[in-house]
Fold each of these.
Amino acid sequence: MRIRYTSLLFVFVCAVVVNAQEVPTPKLNLMPMPASVKFHRERLAVDSNFRVATRGHSDVRLQAGIFRFLKRLEGRTVLTMPPGLAADDQTTPLVVNCQGPGKNIPGVGEDESYHIDITNRQAILNAPTVVGALRGLETVLQLVDADRNGYFLPGVQIDDQPRFPWRGLMIDVSRHFQTIEVLKRNLDAMAAVKMNVLHWHLSEDQGFRVESKKFPKLHQLGSDGNYYTQDQIKDIIAYARDRGIRVVPEFDIPGHSTSWLVGYPELGSAPGPYTIERRPGIFEPALDPTREEVYKFLETFLGEMAALFPDDYLHIGGDENEGKQWDRNPAIQAYMKQKGIKDNHALQAYFNTRLLKILQKHGKKMIGWDEILQPGLPKDIVIHSWRGTAALAEAARQGYDGILSNGYYIDLIQPASQHYVADPLPADSKLTPEEAKHVLGGEATMWAEWVTPETIDSRIWPRTAAIAERLWSPRTVSDVPDMYRRLAVISLQLEELGLTHKKNQEMMLRRLVRNDDIGPLRTLVAVIEPVKEYRRYQMRPQTMLSPLTGVIDAATPDSEAGRKFSWMVSEFLNDGPRYQLYRPELSAMLSEWQTSGASLEPLIDRSPALKEIKPLAQNLSVLGETGLEAITYLKLGMPPPRDWRETSLAKVNEAAKPYGALEFAVIAGVKQLVNSAGDMGSGRR
Amino acid sequence: MRIRYTSLLFVFVCAVVVNAQEVPTPKLNLMPMPASVKFHRERLAVDSNFRVATRGHSDVRLQAGIFRFLKRLEGRTVLTMPPGLAADDQTTPLVVNCQGPGKNIPGVGEDESYHIDITNRQAILNAPTVVGALRGLETVLQLVDADRNGYFLPGVQIDDQPRFPWRGLMIDVSRHFQTIEVLKRNLDAMAAVKMNVLHWHLSEDQGFRVESKKFPKLHQLGSDGNYYTQDQIKDIIAYARDRGIRVVPEFDIPGHSTSWLVGYPELGSAPGPYTIERRPGIFEPALDPTREEVYKFLETFLGEMAALFPDDYLHIGGDENEGKQWDRNPAIQAYMKQKGIKDNHALQAYFNTRLLKILQKHGKKMIGWDEILQPGLPKDIVIHSWRGTAALAEAARQGYDGILSNGYYIDLIQPASQHYVADPLPADSKLTPEEAKHVLGGEATMWAEWVTPETIDSRIWPRTAAIAERLWSPRTVSDVPDMYRRLAVISLQLEELGLTHKKNQEMMLRRLVRNDDIGPLRTLVAVIEPVKEYRRYQMRPQTMLSPLTGVIDAATPDSEAGRKFSWMVSEFLNDGPRYQLYRPELSAMLSEWQTSGASLEPLIDRSPALKEIKPLAQNLSVLGETGLEAITYLKLGMPPPRDWRETSLAKVNEAAKPYGALEFAVIAGVKQLVNSAGDMGSGRR
């Protein structure tokens, strides 16, 4: 059956018809999709008598999870349910049957599986561990549906467990500091899509973010006052544990360490003094791997951190050290000669070997970026691959555990569809089943050069939910349109956890326009995207101290309006020579572009911060006008004038140029319209 | 000159034309309006060279204030300005010239005055204290304007100081707990409108919110785990002090004390046991004023709190104790007989006298609600009047300081215009100047039965800014339309501080509708308001544990669309018999009501939480249709059929009935239209 785009985009919560005879596989709004879902013809009412009882194991963490579940259910349904847990597990609507507590500290081997069975009478959630039960409760919340008769849970039987044990989100809190509230709401969002690792990127050239009682100048001089106290860190770890999420800290060394050296220049490979870095990029400062004092410092510091962070792993970064300070330091050069260390790679391998011993002494396993993989390291380190699945597979063949981040760089403004196809263990993988076990999963990476607490949610969500699905669900769950359909539903549900990815956009537009009349700017922003990869800084340089409140910051990746437009264009063109399908919707959209472009001019004149998008406003009108012309020719079956295609394509190509580091997400669709209209004239149809 | 409503509502940031010859008094968007503003013909550019220098006194608090100022200025203009303070005070665009630090702990006698002089060359802000400088910086931020040439500060000379020294916002954190983030962003908002007292209502029947190290069962058993640690309290006090805001804690006794008695039933006037109250209302539990143990407890507890809260004042509540437990307790009755205490009022006076001694011993002045004013109390207590200006004046005549809250009960869903006219010292006050000095100011009161962190901002703001103006600006600043014009601008600026009063509404509508298609619901919600005063609970009873996520919670007081509609109706009718003015706008608005009402039906069918507003949706259509009919008759100059007026008014009256504790804010306007059309038939025109 052909899926209409309207139903994909607009009917988010499709009524789940539970009559199995009529609809064999109703569209559930689950994300990540469970390993197995079967449907009954039944449904369980969710009304003001809804309660939860536990059976088997129960503890504070499970109960807190159930109370959070009930609060969200009440919030969504506006029903006041009886407070507390029910005692009777025979008739209570939802019974959580947990077999045991699971690991005390969340860890890689945690059993996160669960089983849900919903009938007319009761919903039973079975899980071997509390974490499994928490994962199942999120699924139950995603199952809640409604119709004229009220809220209900559809009759289903779900068997579910993750494909990979390591499903992480890395948050860089160093380039821009992120508050405790940002972390907590993102932990809630991670739990909602069953992610289980917060990789906390805590130090960088641009900031050192942890209170160290042993070396207080680290946070005092390296953070501008923006750091987490140890109490706050414990609070975050507890908050994550409550949600079955591990917290893996990263202290990136020997490079990326300018902020360490502000307070402790004696650790550096050049004399200093050092100041906190304000630019983005790769910088020279690096710890001096030839000095015993550096290892003594690390021994004490990492000992302090090892005690603070209970996770088995500690991430030591290790990336992007170009060794320029090492090259220029005669003492380091002499040391290398003396020890027979032939190059900087070997020197960093030497550093890592020493580091590994320190971590082992403190009971931690080492994880680091690709660069740490060097001959001679033992097999219990984990390789974090920014290079790709080939590097990951090679590490696995050598017996190293690894996780993938290549493909999951959410700071690069790629669409969810692109992240969705990145698979840590692709279908064509040549690894043996035994080797494949070394591929533990992956992590989305939120590098924070261009995000603040105001905008970070919109860079992480909803796209990261697609990555969460890739890491949890079977490889065969890969239908991109259906992913987008479910992503829109999940995106809305994340708002109930306090996520600001949707609501901050209009606020930012109001601030830019300086009043409530944001209609035309909203129309423009809906169809533009920040430029991808690392082009933003090249086109619109800023520092870490610059305001991130421009149109580029309000614009989001993966334009939904852009996808809708492309879809409608292709349906419309496929409907030729009738050209009826979606014509009214397309015409309305193009007309709106045309008029909004013009309406933007006076707004821009009153708001100098909008000046940089003036060419975009003009081009929005041009794109609208050109698209409308093409539709008119197609509709009338009338070939356009001879030069029309060429002139129009020139205009569209002109409009494809980015301004303010923003570009249109609708260029291809308009070109398709122009070319189709042009083809009529050239007899190519 | 007649002010057009469009310009009031839509052109929020009017370009300040600084040519004094052309426009003698440009419309500035200042709130509260300064005591004196004069205009020059000059302007100072705000560009990426904008910096601040200090002259005279400087300290950490001033510098932090300047950095916050710069961050907001950068955020609003999307300009990266040079970091840090400038050294040169001769050419730097803004110079802050502060004469001294002011009080170490913010207090009632603080000098908050400031003087601003802006020329082409420089802006100079003079202030005797740091707090005065902070107030002035807020004015500078409100002065920032823009046109095609960029951002700028208009040439002005401002002399400003507050009319009243006590300008407070009371936040009840007991009925519903409010997080630290809620308090911080509201402190920021208070500072933006120059308020200077956070009255923190910390204990109630429904919750005890402070960690007590002396009596830990207070917070452990009385708060459901929702309390502030002493560290958090110190953090809030420091945050407030940084902004020149006092923090006055309230511990409401002897009534309103159920939550104290959960952990310490022995303090009560009945044996207990007690549980945390979940309902709204006035309850019986009260401390036993006849037992020495109670005073010993209070001596220790208030000593702990007196050390924690540095403000000179401590609020002891004292309201709404009906004494029912006292009446029924034979020991209390015997004690009263023995001591010659003739009634419960006298008993509470006895209690307050004892309490006063305890507070005095700990160096605190007592403040309490009207009820505490009883013969024999010394003159250094402060009366907090919920009764009104007459009670306040009477207290002042007796020599008692007082503050007003009657008229400022923002939980009662009244329009800002109503709060705006409430004056602690009305024009017709009979107090002598000496007596009038006892009237210290007032406080907006955010009672929290029906607000959560998600909705509280929308109940406080923007209306509280009108109260802030009443308490700061000269009495003569009283133009309601101009207040609303400026309120809309300030409301938007508050968003840059993280306030959620605007952005959470659409999020809540998305959650209710369960998708992004909220247009019709938004149209309805824009013209309805929650029922006023205490009718919400009567019409739609809930408990403190109920979800506050319904349409009533998304709807806001003081409907802006309702005001706009009324204005347009009156302009339209005044334009008879031509009936041209605002006819297109009115017709468009009424048509939108008509169609939205119909579009809401399927949304309601899919979202049972919307069921309660089904009659409102139908009535929205009816109001739209009726209004359109009236406009058609008026436009055509055609008298309607004989029964039309009666039938139509009956429909409108039917539509005036509240549903879901929500009512239309446009009834009067539609009736005016109907009556005007009807008058044509009856020959009354």
Amino acid sequence: MNSLELLKLLESVQAGKLTPAKAIERLKHLPFEDLDFAKVDHHRTLRQGFAEVIFGKGKTPEQIAKIVRAMLAKKDSRHNILITRTDAKTFSAVKRVAGKESRLAKFHALSGVITIERSKEISGKGTILVVSAGTSDIPVAEEAVLTARMMGNSVEQLYDVGVAGIHRLLEHRSELTEARVIICVAGMEGALPSVVGGLVGIPVIAVPTSTGYGASFGGVAALLGMLNSCASNVTVVNIDNGFGAACVASCINRL
Amino acid sequence: MNSLELLKLLESVQAGKLTPAKAIERLKHLPFEDLDFAKVDHHRTLRQGFAEVIFGKGKTPEQIAKIVRAMLAKKDSRHNILITRTDAKTFSAVKRVAGKESRLAKFHALSGVITIERSKEISGKGTILVVSAGTSDIPVAEEAVLTARMMGNSVEQLYDVGVAGIHRLLEHRSELTEARVIICVAGMEGALPSVVGGLVGIPVIAVPTSTGYGASFGGVAALLGMLNSCASNVTVVNIDNGFGAACVASCINRL
Amino acid sequence: MNSLELLKLLESVQAGKLTPAKAIERLKHLPFEDLDFAKVDHHRTLRQGFAEVIFGKGKTPEQIAKIVRAMLAKKDSRHNILITRTDAKTFSAVKRVAGKESRLAKFHALSGVITIERSKEISGKGTILVVSAGTSDIPVAEEAVLTARMMGNSVEQLYDVGVAGIHRLLEHRSELTEARVIICVAGMEGALPSVVGGLVGIPVIAVPTSTGYGASFGGVAALLGMLNSCASNVTVVNIDNGFGAACVASCINRL
Amino acid sequence: MNSLELLKLLESVQAGKLTPAKAIERLKHLPFEDLDFAKVDHHRTLRQGFAEVIFGKGKTPEQIAKIVRAMLAKKDSRHNILITRTDAKTFSAVKRVAGKESRLAKFHALSGVITIERSKEISGKGTILVVSAGTSDIPVAEEAVLTARMMGNSVEQLYDVGVAGIHRLLEHRSELTEARVIICVAGMEGALPSVVGGLVGIPVIAVPTSTGYGASFGGVAALLGMLNSCASNVTVVNIDNGFGAACVASCINRL
Amino acid sequence: MNSLELLKLLESVQAGKLTPAKAIERLKHLPFEDLDFAKVDHHRTLRQGFAEVIFGKGKTPEQIAKIVRAMLAKKDSRHNILITRTDAKTFSAVKRVAGKESRLAKFHALSGVITIERSKEISGKGTILVVSAGTSDIPVAEEAVLTARMMGNSVEQLYDVGVAGIHRLLEHRSELTEARVIICVAGMEGALPSVVGGLVGIPVIAVPTSTGYGASFGGVAALLGMLNSCASNVTVVNIDNGFGAACVASCINRL
Amino acid sequence: MNSLELLKLLESVQAGKLTPAKAIERLKHLPFEDLDFAKVDHHRTLRQGFAEVIFGKGKTPEQIAKIVRAMLAKKDSRHNILITRTDAKTFSAVKRVAGKESRLAKFHALSGVITIERSKEISGKGTILVVSAGTSDIPVAEEAVLTARMMGNSVEQLYDVGVAGIHRLLEHRSELTEARVIICVAGMEGALPSVVGGLVGIPVIAVPTSTGYGASFGGVAALLGMLNSCASNVTVVNIDNGFGAACVASCINRL
Amino acid sequence: MNSLELLKLLESVQAGKLTPAKAIERLKHLPFEDLDFAKVDHHRTLRQGFAEVIFGKGKTPEQIAKIVRAMLAKKDSRHNILITRTDAKTFSAVKRVAGKESRLAKFHALSGVITIERSKEISGKGTILVVSAGTSDIPVAEEAVLTARMMGNSVEQLYDVGVAGIHRLLEHRSELTEARVIICVAGMEGALPSVVGGLVGIPVIAVPTSTGYGASFGGVAALLGMLNSCASNVTVVNIDNGFGAACVASCINRL
Amino acid sequence: MNSLELLKLLESVQAGKLTPAKAIERLKHLPFEDLDFAKVDHHRTLRQGFAEVIFGKGKTPEQIAKIVRAMLAKKDSRHNILITRTDAKTFSAVKRVAGKESRLAKFHALSGVITIERSKEISGKGTILVVSAGTSDIPVAEEAVLTARMMGNSVEQLYDVGVAGIHRLLEHRSELTEARVIICVAGMEGALPSVVGGLVGIPVIAVPTSTGYGASFGGVAALLGMLNSCASNVTVVNIDNGFGAACVASCINRL
């Protein structure tokens, strides 16, 4: 509609009803979003190839189901759909609204993630390797794995390679060096990214987890450890933010 | 220059060289700031009547003098000039560049503020009252007083009325109720804004100071006290931010 | 009764039974609130036009119902009644005691607020605009909206305009500039007030929310972000304190 | 028994079987508690007249009932019994074991305290006044009141006198000045002890409460406020520690 | 002057020029401090017998000397004068203005305290014992000792009795039990007050010091230790606040 | 399989098909874990004689039972099995899979530990003494006791010897001096290790517990107290980490 | 030497003096670093093309000069040399040892960086854009710019585009979208990366700076803001770590 | 003297002047330290073989020199003397008083330690290995090395083996496994003890250092990392406490 308004203005100029100088004045008072901004978002989607994402926490099963239905209703999109931090009850609600695509829907109980994988196209250039330290870091690691996969990446995983048993990590040196981006998930002292970062020359996205007790302070110890990493190819995302790490890794992997 | 570019585009439309539809296309690719955004800043200045402000911390005397010279060189502006968090050495440098306006320049040693008061016009509607608790809160209070004054407000001050001698504060009830906005500066336990807030029905801007020692943690105790104020007309700015409190108070006082 | 006591004392003076000097002595030992203080509170209510407010947290449905009944029993008051941080169960209890005014009672589930809107009179001079960043900030925003409305203000709202999609905010520039006071509700990094503050010349009350996870530390990240805002017209209230922000905004809007 | 052992040793000396020098040697190897230490505790009880106290948190009803039974079984003691941080279920268990003293047992639901008041003797010299700020501070205040009473003090209380309505506090100036020790309970910004401390010349024991939300951080804001009090007769105990405040006040009141 | 004003009002009543009812009206508009409040402060001084105190930190030698001169100029006062957190340079300035009383002035370098002891009268009822843990706690302990002495107390001291050499403390059990109030100064883990509190039945004022390094966090470790003391007769003042501890102890010692 | 690969390489050398120099080249590209690393872990187990340990938190009863069955299935091992941070439900599941060894399985409800003590062999050289302060520290102390015992140590325990009743600790001086390593468990102010450390000349492993409330901050106060211990033979493990303390103590006791 | 040892072993196999099986046994006891590890570091350098870097903080001018001389002495390397966190005095020392390359040495006073740019070869694939918020963030931004340049990247910079003047940032939308990686440097509330991240589809490395005062807590406010960014393509490095951000950006830019 | 007093008492018993029963009474009132406690300290020194230690921080050169002179004056002691956290000026003062032993005095500038090594006797049973991560950790490591040596231990050191270059550590596996106790010094993320702890079966004493910047928070990041170590043979001492780590290691090494 705003383009319409602009069109009229320009037609007035064309018709000589409005001088260019006056048109400039009036243009300045048009809300600028009418010109150009809707496009921004569109471009962004094109560029990132992001899956459609719903952050489930704090939303009811009904709310989520409704959003999913709307997403599936878009005719021209075959984007994968990813719902994070959700539960089995929501999965049932999603299945009910998913129609014939309900068979593509899967619930991953460990990480509380629902995926509707409508496209298996790989658009990332290399492999994203998700490395995690202890068994209790696996839910966050799985969130990262699923997110990266839904966003069109080839993903490998390497679990239970904590630094107190350094040889288990070293046994997998080849996987480390074959990856294009590494996501490194660790709780407790958060030392794994430093060791991994020292073994490779590629970017390492560190995810602290809230694993641990006492002075782990819900992941703060790991977070600080990672921010102070002595390896210079390590960056950090928020505690338990497997999703965010995968977004960044996916960004990098498309470059 | 961009307006020029736009003018040319519109003249092409006027001249029939460019259809309105194509003009829209090209308009979308113009950087939008060319249309409208410079105005934003301009409007803002008009609306706020803000003095010209230099945050002195981290700038050399020479850098500050240079900025002042540029400000004074603007022909059509008689804005007051305010330099916060600075020192006597900078004051000398400022005096040297200030030319005939150097006699208006003053250095306020307690708060480390330099003022060049070129206009005494009062644009705020009522009085801003700056209340402070202890003698060591005075530097921050003075920064607030000078800032509010430079921004065109009538300012009163009420010092040394800490809550442990509540009668000193109560003796000044009339000043409190006659103000339009109150800035309340306090360190240590930061209790003053709660008491003041309870005595009046106008907005109270609380400024925690880094006054105190030990568990005052450089003003954190006062900050938390103020954020948790049981008086519902209290808002808070950053520790020692007398300048910020005066900006907000000035905003309110123009409404 | 105390006025009575004072009256007697003065009558003794009048009757010559007590010298003025002795009367002074005795006056000094009267509790001073007998003279003047009850008035304070009264004045304050007049000046602020505050709705009657009950902070529901930690009170049983029965306790709240009892307070409401007492409020409604006051013959000469048509104040709106506002109950914050409460629930549906309390709403039933309130309905039961509200008599013929029960049809005015409403429960707002999202924010846990009960309103009994007995007067629609607008006493605030302009519009209070409540802006919020993400969907999970809405409960706090709604508490602010309802509080401001109950206190006699015209209120507008603008939701879901987070800084990572800056164009959505910019599309609403006109609403921003038309408001008289802005309440800005945001969790996570708490960046919205800085951007909003930079776009307008009016006071912005920032409310950090406990939205987020990990290193958001229950709203501390947003709180710190807001306290350190680079926009100088921003002040801050406590985490999740939508009510307090609306009180301050209402104070300002009456000036 | 140890005294016995010592007696034997001394009898050996008396009997000439052991030289004094050798006795010294052997004395040095006796565990010294045999000589003197049991007395310490005894003395302490005599001196303090402490009620018998059970910290209920983390103990089962059965464990508490068992301890109470043992206390009541002591023939020569008429000490009051105080159980803090407990619940109604424990109260039933205590009643069952209390025999004929069960009619003295009372459960105070607000503070979760059980009292068995076997003696009404007042051993404190003056009155302990418990002052509290908001309604949600009352549970902690009540714990203080009951503890002080069980320890043989005359106790008065003054509730709901927060600093944002300073006149309510000032109306009670006479109660404040008539007390011998004041316990001051407050959450949120913890400003009450500063104001109270400034009005009196007696010791003020400040108790921060975990009342509040957001940046009150479970009582930390109030705690810091109190530690930084600008009144010099204020000391502080742990958050929510009404019991501890009453112990100290009772200590002082016996001096 | 205000009493004068009041006197006139009452004389008008006496003279029949003003009815008692009208007098009440006019009384309500008198600033109430005119009636009664100056007395408050006066009473407080009488009751507390406090020495005159100057908090030296943040004041120049000249400012302090000026205040001292004013104090000495008061004809009818023989109060001791105490200046805390000051230095040798200030001491010289004070000596210069002290006239014939300059021989009473002493500088205590360890604690940075200046005393002008004009009266040796003891008004406290018992002995205040200042106990400290390590050699680096002595400055704070000395501040407490001097403050308590200037306020008219008999003071004893017991230094270097840290808990890691528990026998050194136990050797002085008699001093502990003979005191009326104990001030307990300790840095590092702040454990001393718990042990001392367990050995006596009198109030123990704990002063954390900023002694230590690393995870002592400038006294926070000691502060937390003391707040969590398992001895129930311990209260706490701010870090390094020897002055405050002595004020409270002095308050108690006058009871 | 890798050994196989290596064998082939060496056979090629032996057969003269590969020169030693070329073999070195190829060896460098073999993943080194193929050579040697599995052994590392094996050595470590031999050296430490550690029991088999399962950290129960976050694992389902079924998962734990499955791990236990696998452990019991190892023919040549008679290691004790220790499951920490678990519950009665898991104990039932473990019993079901334990077969004839189920009679050795015990559930320790206080600490939530399951033990299957298959060997009573003592391999530690001296006694590990576990000392604890309050009754609420006992669960953590018990975890330490059971862990140390399962790892083949002679263990003694000394409970309820908090520093506020120092004589109770001193009565047990002989137990303290007879131990080879001491584990010291304490919450609240965490002062016990300092006192114990001062009484002995052996290593003291301090375990802070999350016992307490308010400013104990879930064990942080105790943790800081212990880190700042003035006794120089004290080291610290994480909050509530009775298991870790026993591991270290066991390490030391084997030296 | 170890290769020698290995060679002998293999020669023994070749000579038939050692069976392959026995050789395996002996190989297992060789320290594995003899085989392969030196190579690791070498590979890493090759892969990363990192400049030679010296972290200057805590090193004397002499120490740094010595390291530089050693670097320059390596015949076959033309690596750039980068010294961070250093000063003018060190620069003189470096110049003295740099011989004919001293003319390539430059000191960047703002960021305290010394560069010796021996190669201008660009190995990064795209442009790294360094965006910063305020003038006081420039030192950190410059450290990032210089590091990225020394590591062979094409670098652009965009300064003074804080979020409170959002239009200044929006004016440079094209630079943002043309970059391959963005480094975003901001202090205070750290909001810039969220806004920038929302405008682009490429990775954004956020660097919090210690700019600000009061509740900025030396960069903690900015750090938390960035960790909680609502833009999903943002990762974070340590406070003031311009160097680290550039390392990661360089890593990414080589992919 | 007290023994004398006791002797007299016993002689009175022997002489029949005092009955054993009365003697017991009188014994109870003797300060118990007279019996036994001096011995405690003596025993402790014997048992620990500790060097004489002076904590230099906060002491003047003169004070330290005086203490050293007193130590050297003890005829029957050949203990080593260790002064930590001191400087070159103090060293001169110490040399002056050391007489003929001055040639044994050495100043270690890196760690600010003075040693007077009067005895080279080795009383520790094995080797203490001090491992450190970065070059800036060396001062703390050196303090540990010198302390351990002065206390009669054989000490080895292994510097610059940070976890980001894991192979440098692994190259020294044999040193690690040959030690009896390991002290592990690391700043930044504090990950080294976890890796080291996983490679050995002996106790690892972790020392966090205040190395680093930004979110290292003066060693807190490293401290938390170490407390949360996933290796179960790691304990922790205070930040920068190389001395304390060596004391504990020495304790263990004597077992």
